[in-house]
Amino acid sequence: MNDEAVSTSRDGDVLRVVLDRPDRRNSLSHRMIDDLVTVLTAAASDDSLRAIAITGAGGDFCTGADWVATNSGGQRPRTGDLVRRVPHTAHRVIELVATIQLPVICTVRGWAVGLGCNLALAADFTIADADATFWEPFLSRGFSPDSGATWLLPRLAGVTRARRMLLLGEKVSGTQAADWGLIHDAVPAGELDAAADELLARLANGPTVALGLAKQAIVYSQHATLTQSMNQELSNLELSCRTGDFKEGLAAFRERRDPDFRGR
Fold first, then answer.
1. pLDDT reading at 255 higher than 70
2. In terms of C-beta density within 10 A (0-12 exposed, 13-18 middle, 19 or more buried), how is residue 25 classed?
3. Beta strands 111-113 and 51-56: pairing type?
4. Beta-carbon neighbour count of residue 250 at 10 Å?
5. How far apart are CA 131 and CA 175, in angstroms?
6. Among 50, 133, 179, 225, which residue is least crowded by beta carbons within 10 Å?
7. pLDDT tens profile 37-93
8. Judging by beta carbons within 10 Å of its beta carbon (0-12, 13-18, 19+), is residue 222 exposed, middle or buried?
């Protein structure tokens, strides 16, 4: 194990991803971001998976991109370096989490900062320690927000609260983040893992294809009209009605029992 790791493991049909750099509060180096892109890209085409869980090692989730290491080499990057590179790295991580047709759950304790905060906000469900801290410190560092912050925050919490976090740099606790609708739930620290695992099991046992299509439709609707969204729903309905899980859902309804979805 090196000191800049994204660790992965299989737990049945669940992919567990750990940001494993606790001595730096899981700040993401270039290599870790590249590894996240690779892991999530592979997961997107893995038919054996039914859910993804992302967490941080140690006492924090992720304190964002490691800007100290990035800017300590002494050699100034070429003009346009960020414009060329970031769409394929940090921004690609956010896109993959938001669009992959598998449910993604983040478990947050400690700090979720910058890119780490946006990673948690892009997930389908984030459960946090009530005392966790969500922070977008971009402007306090002298540069403008990235990694989806200006898209995610207004849609999840409203423009006024987005301004508080992005322009004023206000820190938000796990409890406040849940109250604002930024995340799914906040729980006492001792209950965090159990709450996340319960939700993860529920999603992993769901109708995986229909879940993925519903997630895709929600993302699509953010920039579509009502008619366009309903047309997208119709196409997705046509696909989901051809799955084995659809047949199982109907059978369970007729037989008045809980469905046994297989993700197919």
1. yes
2. buried
3. unpaired
4. 12
5. 7
6. 225
7. 999 999 999 999 999 999 999 999 999 988 655 555 556 666 666 667 676 788 999
8. exposed
